[in-house]
Amino acid sequence: MIKALCHPLPCRGPRVLPPRSLPIARGLTQPKSPRLLEQRSIATAKGQVHPSMSSSHTLAKLVFGTDALKLDKLFDVSGWVAIVTGGGTGLGLVTASALASNGCKVYITGRRLEPLQEAARTAAPEGSPGSIIPVQADMSSKEGILRLKEVIEKEEKWVNVLINNHGVSLDVPKINEAEQTAQGIAKKMFDDETFESWADGHRINTASYYFTTFAFLPLLDAAQKVGKYSEPGNVLNIASVSGITKTSQRGQFSYNSNKAATISLSHQLATEFARRGLGIRVNVVCPGYFPSGMSPVDEKYLKPSEEFKQKYGTPLGRSGNAQDYAQCIFGLINNQYVTGAEVVIDGGWLLVQAF
């Protein structure tokens, strides 16, 4: 018996196992096997062989003779209704300005009305292709979110894009790089931190994105059903590279943790909306260093410099600018084939932050 078990089996090459049927989540259909695009070859006058453009599977053939691939069609937001929370300053204002400059009607929110009004006047002056409407709202409470919804429902029948941009970076204890003892680090990070600050950061940076998204879900759905657009409205959440890096960036454990939670929330929302056939896309942007109220970067670093590269560890040697950011935003809110994406725009910062 032992000899039989130990006797080498004859070599017959690799064993091919029959395909297994993977379990499928309830509500999802079995994915079809991918079809290979047919490619035909034709002989040209010079005897060269090229793929035939007569193939019924050629994507380019579908748009020949149209303007579908022109930039103004690929990134068209004219007539859209958008919401940019925290849109009165920083990257939120860049987003609102870019949308309004291209014919979008943009609602921006913030806790203080006067800065919002000033931002609207500056970013979308009279004669602009679009408009910016300031709405005072506290996005960290259900009452504030419902107030914003009430204001917009009185004016609009649908929303094409919801950009959850508001956020807060609370003062946190910083780890002294010279401190190497367990006792010293523990005292600093325990004594100077509070449960309240952790809860506040999570409530504003993550939980409020959840409640805002679900509050506006019917209006996003109505973009297709009522507005007759080719797809429902979509959601874009703004997180940070701080939610991806494995470092605490000298002690901002709370901020980095709730930004990581925002990224996870975005993936979950995208999945749940997809499996229910809603067609509402959800994506998340993770910016690196941009001059804004949430970042210490000076505007002088908009131009490449060795100083910036060494100080901030960004391989491309500069901070991000308004054009960089707007290009990223427009690509995600317009591309109807992208959902659940986590897009990093950081000049390569994460590439060198593994340790």
Automatic annotation (TrEMBL):
Keywords: NADP, Oxidoreductase. Signal peptide: none annotated. SUPFAM superfamilies: NAD(P)-binding Rossmann-fold domains. It comes from the Eukaryota. GO terms for molecular function: oxidoreductase activity. The keyword Chloroplast does not apply. InterPro entries: NAD(P)-bd_dom_sf (IPR036291), SDR_fam (IPR002347), Sec_Metab_Biosynth_SDR (IPR052178). Belongs to the short-chain dehydrogenases/reductases (SDR) family. PANTHER family: 7-ALPHA-HYDROXYSTEROID DEHYDROGENASE (PTHR43618), SHORT CHAIN DEHYDROGENASE_REDUCTASE FAMILY (AFU_ORTHOLOGUE AFUA_7G04540) (PTHR43618:SF4). This is Short-chain dehydrogenase. It comes from Cryptococcus amylolentus CBS 6039.
